């Protein structure tokens, strides 16, 4: 499977999505950008085209089936193929409190964007990707998808579900040339993260370039052997993951699983 020449990035009008779109374009990857904000999206498209690559921006709500279908059709028609999909669009609860102190509708809104969105976009992109001989899918995840927390219940639930989706995608479509990856971007300084009380006073942030480096390495096929697994920008690099490759595979590490009590545990 060749290195990615085209990519579709959701949530591309701001924050991590914008940095990824511009970073991939700077590496010569043509990009399809999906977001809801037309004015901001146009700015990112212009920024990407300045790198000499094709770029198209389509407005869509990733939780709307018809919006997503039209957006993917438009991107595929403009770029001819989609080699790399980055499911980046995401939200978090408006309050940083335990479950009983939150509005369930607010939490459900988070689940819809963070889970229904990737489901719809991936379902629309996969036929295009398979027709082109395969590709890679990156689901932007979080450490909260893999560990329990006292806050952000809906967000943690959504990211746990997304982690399972990543593993299922990689298992179901690996033989057809598709790899799927979970990537936590770390603590990137964006409008969303700076508004979160848990980051108040933070002075050390993950560089957007670190996220882009991992996504680009995934797109290039450098990390194909580690499909279905979890990476974290700012901690992992393409080189460090390659150095750990054999250990990760030997221990079947970096995946969502139920730990057991040992060889005598019937849940093995």
UniProtKB/TrEMBL annotation:
What superkingdom does the record give? Bacteria
Keywords, alphabetical: Oxidoreductase
Please indicate if the UniProt record lists Oxidoreductase as a keyword.
Answer: yes
Which InterPro entries does the entry mention? Answer: NAD(P)-bd_dom_sf (IPR036291), SDR_fam (IPR002347)
Gene Ontology MF terms in the entry: oxidoreductase activity
The answer to whether keyword Cell division applies is no
Q: Which GO terms describe its cellular component?
A: membrane
UniProt cross-references to Pfam families, sorted A to Z: adh_short
Family (UniProt): Belongs to the short-chain dehydrogenases/reductases (SDR) family.
Name of this chain's protein = SDR family oxidoreductase
User: What is the species listed in this Swiss-Prot or TrEMBL entry?
Assistant: Jiangella ureilytica
Native organism taxonomy: Bacteria, Bacillati, Actinomycetota, Actinomycetes, Jiangellales
